[in-house]
Amino acid sequence: MRTLPGWWLLCVLVASPVGAAPPAAAPPAIPGAGSVAPEVQLCLQHLKPSERDRAAKALGPLESVPLYRVQLEVSPKERRVWGKVQVELVAKGPRPLTELYLRLTPNTRSRQVTLSGAKVNGKAVALELGPEPTLQRVVVEPPVAPGGTVSLEVAVKGTVPKAAPGAESLLGAGGLLGGAGAKGGADDHGAFSATADVLSLVGVVPQVPPVDDQGQPWAGPQGMGDLALYEPAHVLATLTVPSGWAAHATGTPLGEVPERDGRVRYSFAAAAVRDFPVLVTRGYTAATATVNGVTVESHFAPQDAASGKRVLKYASQALTEFEKRLGPLPYTHFRVVQAPLSGGAGGMEFPGLVTVATSLYRAKQDPLKMLAGMPGMEAFEDLLDAQGAGLLAQMGAQVGESLERTLEFTVAHEVAHQYFAGLVGSDPIREPVVDESLAQYAALLYMEWAHGPEVAESLRNEALVMPYQFFRMTGGRDGRADRPTGDFDGGELEYGALVYGKAPLLHHASRELVGDAAFFKALRAYVDTYRFKWACKACFTQELAKASPVNAKALGRLRVRWWEEAHGDEDLGAADLQGLMEAMGGSGGLGGVKLDAQTQALLEQLLPQLMGP
Question: How far apart are alpha carbons 352 and 167 in whole angstroms?
């Protein structure tokens, strides 16, 4: 997930100077697939032909990968979803399989999705509550020996909550761009929510979570950061929606079939994916492009067509650059869907599909409108009026420019997540620093490759350094970045400052130590080594040490310094408000703006109000 940095908008404000797809064609034959079940063959159309052998090398026989059969129906008017899900998997490990868990991430806060009618290998079984709200458990009796196949079927029913008020604005669910966030509680950033034209159904498909060496499921969502990640699996899905609505999901589209009752059934087939997001939209339009055998789709509201087409351009450019340096994306389709995210989220990532916040699509058109109603805004406007009549009205262009940079950077960040942790898996709950830091730094690399080192350096300050500095200015304490999502007691502002701000700069420091040749050799080796596998938090450091053995010990010390210790002030500096604006000099020209002592003091007093509760 990419969280939006709230600090920079304040700096820009105070520093601005006056003055529907057709049915899919019949899939081509898969070489050597005579013994593979037809359902699996359908799923494998989602993998590039050149990637199927690589996937099999990492995962074993592709017909033994877990297979989900999903049938869902959606009523947007009633905000209801229902259907059936069946999963077939092969028992692994040294011991017989005696139980299975299913995870439903929408149930983090309350029970919004229910399961019933469970059957294991065709036999009715009881569903039990698991050790946390998102989990349900079934007993497998008799136990299935390693190598044996088990089938679990359940009926699914859910009611989708209305999206948080203001979910389509920059203010999200509170504070400046999500600002300080809630200290405690649970927020899915709108992943399971409904507006008049969008139902985001992320997590409605129950999935089997990874388990540890003791057979216990990995921890679920903690109200901060991402929701979950799973073992690679195949998915065959049908999604039935009313006429005028469209379904979006991961995978190869298999067509749209009109039903007798006027509804439309969409079908998708996905291969070796770590999650299966579902969204339903009304009135959306699309733009497409092709990048090295990947169909890139941008889905957006008609009034946001200009932004939607720019999102397609940014996604295609980012994918082009990443495929050159990180290796090919294994899938044939990649979708970007506009969604009303909340709580400061700029985007959310899933394998083969990402969402980008509606607020970012609309902010450039009328950026100042997005600030209406913000806590503390009246006092802020009074302060600006005192500095010169009409100042606020003249800030739009500069705010819009910053927001457009944020949109491009956010899209690049979400595309980078296709590699980290979509392809190279890592635990997003216990070790969020692994994939988020790499996605954030890869987005910075994209800006360097696409726009040059000067732009990248400006974004390094704006998107990584300054969130940390702003966090410190508002009273936050530096600390360990490498910790579970649930251990960030300071809310979204602390999580963003340490995980998205400070932690990615480990990779910048490592690159400076070993040089570009060794760094990019190690980055490519990391992706190649852990494709479709699980990586550890030290794995990339180990690849760097292989590429630059003379620096092995120093690389280890860097990881400890940046991820486990608190040296942020020493490494990044502890800025004041004037210092933040000077750091934003770049092409926007904020560095020449000076605040008098009284104005700076007043602004620092307003910070707590502008950041929300």
Answer: 24
Distance CA 153, CA 124 (A): 9
Q: 170 pLDDT exceeds 90?
A: no
Task: Give the pair of three-digit tokens for residue 443.
Answer: 């987005």
Say what the pLDDT of residue 169 is: 62
Whether residue 22 has a cis bond before it, omega within 30° of 0:
no
Angstrom distances, CA of residue 508 to CA of 466, 513, 568, 572, 575: 15, 9, 14, 12, 20
Using DSSP, state whether 430 is helix, strand or coil: coil
Phi then psi dihedrals of residue 345, to 5 deg: -80, 130
Confidence category of residue 590, pLDDT binned at 50, 70, 90: very low
Q: What distance separates the 2 farthest-apart alpha carbons in the chain?
A: 78
Q: Is it the case that residue 179 has pLDDT exceeding 50?
A: no
Q: What are phi and psi of 313, to 5 degrees?
A: -65, -45
Please spell the DSSP secondary structure of 63-125, one letter per residue.
Answer: GGS-EEEEEEEEETTTTEEEEEEEEEEE--SSS-EEEEEEE-GGGGTS--EEEEEEEETTEE-
Share of the chain above pLDDT 90, in %: 72
Q: How many CA atoms lie within 13 A of 611 on its CB side?
A: 27
Angle ∠(271,273,279) on CA atoms, nearest 5: 100
386-421 pLDDT per residue, tens: 655 455 555 556 677 888 999 999 999 999 999 999
Q: Which two tokens stand for residue 241?
A: 């929606």
- Residue 512 CA to residue 529 CA, distance in Å, equals 23
Q: Are residues 275 and 103 in contact, defined by beta-carbon separation less than 8 angstroms?
A: no
CB 499 within 8 A of CB 484: no
Confidence class for position 33, pLDDT limits 50, 70, 90: very low
Please tell me the distance from the alpha carbon of residue 235 to that of residue 493, in angstroms, as a whole number: 36
Burial label for 64, CB within 10 Å (0-12, 13-18, 19+), is middle
Could you identify the residue written with the tokens 């950077």? 409
Classify residue 537 as exposed, middle or buried by CB count within 10 Å of its CB (0-12, 13-18, 19+).
middle
Q: How far apart are CA 256 and CA 23, in angstroms?
A: 6
Q: How deeply is 160 buried, as exposed, middle or buried, from its count of CB atoms within 10 A (0-12, 13-18, 19+)? A: buried
- Within 10 A of 185 (CB to CB), how many other CB atoms are there? 11
Q: In 3-state terms, what secondary structure has residue 561?
A: helix
Asked if 451 contacts 240 with a C-beta cutoff of 8 angstroms, the reply is no
pTM of the model: 0.90
User: What are the structure tokens assigned to 508, written together?
Assistant: 């910048």
Extended beta strands in 167-232, E state: 192-194, 198-201
Token code pair at residue 593: 């703006």
Residue 139 near residue 126, CB atoms below 8 Å: yes
